[in-house]
Amino acid sequence: MNNIENIYSYTASQFEAIDHLLTMGVGAHIAALVFFLIVSRFVSPRYRIATALSCVVMVSAGLILFSQAQLWTEAFAYNASTELYELQQLTFSNGFRYVNWMVTIPCLLVQLLIVLGIGRQQIFKDAAKLILAAWGMIITGYIGQLYEVSDISQLMIWGAISTVFFVVLLYIVGMRVGKLRHSMPAPTNNTIMTVFVVILFAWTLYPIAYLIPYLATGAEGVVTRQLLFTVADVTSKVIYGIMITYIAVHRSASEGYEPAMEVIGRDGYRDQVNA
After folding, report:
1. Which of 5, 75, 95, 133 is the most exposed place for a label (fewest CB within 10 A)?
2. 3-class SS of residue 44
C-alpha cells in the first residue's frame, strides 16, 4: 500500500472520475498514434525519426494508462452498505508510471534535439546528458513516492533530489532551444519556443502531483492527483508530439521535401528551395 490511492474509499462520482480520466488518457494516445502514423509520410527522412519516436511514446504511454485503468477497476469494488468503492486484495500503484517515464521521457528529449537540427555527434552528447538527468529525476522520484504513506519527510527529501535533476534537465533544454531557434526557418522558430513553454507547464504538473500526499488529503486529493497526471500526460506527450511533428513537416518543406511542400501548400517554400 505504497500509494495514497489505497488508503481511502471513494464515492461513485470520485471513483468514476478517476476511471474516466485514465480512459480518456488511453483514448488520446491511441488517436494521436493514428495521427502520427498518417503524417509520418510527409516528414523527410532526416526528421522522420522524431515522428517515429512519437509513435513509440504513444504505444508505451497508452499501454501503461490502459493497465492503470484496468488496475483501478480491479482494485476497488462497490460496497452497497457503505455506498463507497473500497479497496480489495489487489492494490493500485502509480509506480508503473515511473517505469514508463524511463522510456518515454528520453524519446521526447531526443525528438526535440532532432527537430532542432543538431548534428549527429552533438545529438549523442546532448542526449546522453539529458537522458542521465531524466533517469536521475525519475529514479529518485520513484524512490520518494514509495514513502508517501509511511514517511512524508522521505517523500520530500527524495522529491528535492529529483528536483535538482529536473532543473538541470530544463537548463540544458532551455539553452539549446534559445541558442538554435534563430537558425530555424519561420514559423518553426516561434513554435519551438512554444514547445519549451509546453515542457515547462506539463512537466511542472508532475511534481505537483507527486506532492499531493503533502498538499492534500482524502479522496479528493487522489482525484486531483489523477487529474494532474492525465493533463500532464496528454500535454507533454500528445500535444508536444503534434507540435514536434508540425516543426518536422515545416523543416522538411523548407529543405525541399516535396510531400511536405504539398501538404503544407505553400509556394513560398518552393521559391525558397529553387532560389
Report:
1. 95
2. coil
Q: What is the pTM of this model?
A: 0.93
Q: State how far the Cα of 23 lies from the Cα of 138, in Å rounded to an integer.
A: 24
Is pLDDT above 60 for 273? Answer: no
CA max distance for the chain: 77
Q: Residue length, the chain? A: 275
Of 244, 103, 95, 102, residue with least CA distance to 173: 244
User: Does the residue 15 lie in any domain?
Assistant: yes
Number of C-alpha atoms within 13 angstroms, CB side, residue 220? 3
Q: Give the CATH number for residue 202.
A: 1.20.1070.10
User: Which grid cell sits at 63?
Assistant: 499501454
**pLDDT tens digit sequence for 220-261:** 999 999 999 999 999 999 999 999 999 999 999 999 999 999
Residue 228 domain boundaries: 4-270
CB 14 within 8 A of CB 84: no
Question: Quick check: bond before 187 cis, omega within 30?
Answer: yes
Q: What is the per-residue pLDDT across 136-195, written as a single tens digit (0 to 9) for each?
A: 999 999 999 999 999 999 999 999 999 999 999 999 999 999 999 999 988 999 999 999
Alpha-carbon span 187 to 115, nearest angstrom:
13
Instruction: At 170, list the grid cell.
Output: 530544463
